[in-house]
């Protein structure tokens, strides 16, 4: 197990890539705090992890839906909250400290693409632009800043931000999303620079198109799906598992000499 | 075991990154071919892996020679009947500005790094394609291929070429299920890295070290772990990319 007894916070863990990361981290032995803006998704993720751990480790005791507010699990705690709200971000970090006494890994995964209105810059309403920035950029800042305060006290820690290949090469007609992910790329490098002396590694994963609830509205349009596959040398859409295994690498001690890196997991999208 | 039943060719497998990677690959279940111009070194590593219960063979190989590479690939197929992973790791150091570099040094640097990666790929890839199982190529670039470092012009140019070659190969061979990526290590404590450090004046060494945000040079194990990530299914959706393992040097 590559993350045995590491304490990890995963935001946006109620669906998609975040769920995939939480699932894989649990199998690799991490103890988790999972956060999401929606409780229903966290319950589903918890059930999935219970099942996986029972299969992998024969662990019988699973998540109890009735205790500790709304969910309690031997392998994790749960926070319903919005990463872009300061108090919620602090609660996510505090949940790790209260339950496990420390916080080794933060995966800033919570993010949104914006509505279908948020496409071209000249048709994007201000409030759509702001909402995308609020979650994708400010949310990463709020959780990271809360976590780094703890990591500085501990003298160690690592952060994995889920940016996007769109932060390096734009996806067509996603102006706000592209800009927000570019900001995450720059913010990741800034954190890596500032906290390297404190033994806090900060990296980002830049996924290409990954099939999740967030992207399905586009992938369900057959022509659009084919267009995306045609633009991907590897010839398929990404899966949450593809990103989860990369997150394990960056979060583990195997990546001890890696900081400030943009780990591109995109089936070759950006080389085209 | 993350490379169970895989066969890996590791050029420059007799020392440095190649040796450490070979040991880790063998530990993860792969059979390894150690190709090295220093046959004695490769044989010693192979023996040590076999004594530890692994499966290793070796071949004295000059990666800049087509006939030498072809023979090495044939030997791999004869022994292991397949190839899944090619780690194009063989490399040499070279120093100097363009004014200081002589033509022989320039040509030799490109022959080992670039022609070597080209020739090994040329002779290994047909076997992978024919198998229909797909495979993985990992090339070795360097931070010198990404940013401007002093007194390393030929080395930097060759390592820059490796990044472009990686992207081109990724585009060409994705259709066969072959992922092609590269690593870009910073200065690491390998024999080559040690020579590089010894070649520095104290001032230049201090300056070199000061550029690493993590405040130290890398360890070969740290590079080898990144190669394992790229060689295994953990990087199942990564191709054409460059994994930078440099303590933050090029990020800032």
Give descriptors for this structure.
heterodimer, A: 272 residues, alpha/beta, 14% strand, globular, B: 252 residues, 7-stranded parallel β-sheet, 8 helices, 48% helix
Describe the structure.
The complex is a heterodimer of chains A (272) and B (252). By secondary structure, chain A is an alpha/beta fold. Chain A has a seven-stranded parallel sheet with strand order 3-2-1-4-5-6-7, sandwiched between helices. In chain A, helix 1 links the parallel strand 1 and strand 2. The model of chain A has no long low-confidence stretch (mean pLDDT 94). With 252 residues, chain B is an alpha/beta fold. Chain B has eight helices and seven strands; from the N terminus they run E-H-E-H-E-H-E-H-E-H-E-H-H-H-E. Chain B has a seven-stranded parallel sheet, sandwiched between helices. In chain B, strand 2, helix 2 and strand 3 form a beta-alpha-beta unit. In chain B, helix 1 crosses helix 8, helix 3 runs parallel beside helix 4 and helix 4 packs parallel to helix 5. The longest helix of chain B is centred in the middle third of the chain and has 29 residues. The model of chain B has no long low-confidence stretch (mean pLDDT 96). Chains A and B meet through helix 5, helix 8 and strand 7 of A and helix 5, helix 8 and strand 7 of B.
Strand order of the largest sheet of chain A: 3-2-1-4-5-6-7
Instruction: Work out the helicity level of chain A.
Output: 40-55%
Instruction: Sketch the major β-sheet of chain B.
Output: 7 strands, parallel
Low-confidence segments of chain A: none
The share of residues in helices of chain B is: 40-55%
Helix-strand makeup class of chain A: alpha/beta
Strand content of chain B: 15-25%
**How many helices of chain B in DSSP terms?**
8
The quaternary state of the protein chains shown equals heterodimer
H/E topology pattern of chain A: EHEHEHEHEHEHHHE
Overall shape of chain B: it is: globular
Most extensive chain contact?
A-B, 38 and 36 residues
Mean pLDDT metric of chain B? 96
- Based on helices, strands and strand pairing, what is the structural class of chain B? alpha/beta
Taking all residues together, what is the mean pLDDT of chain A? 94
Radius of gyration of chain B: 17 Å
- Name the poorly predicted regions of chain B: none
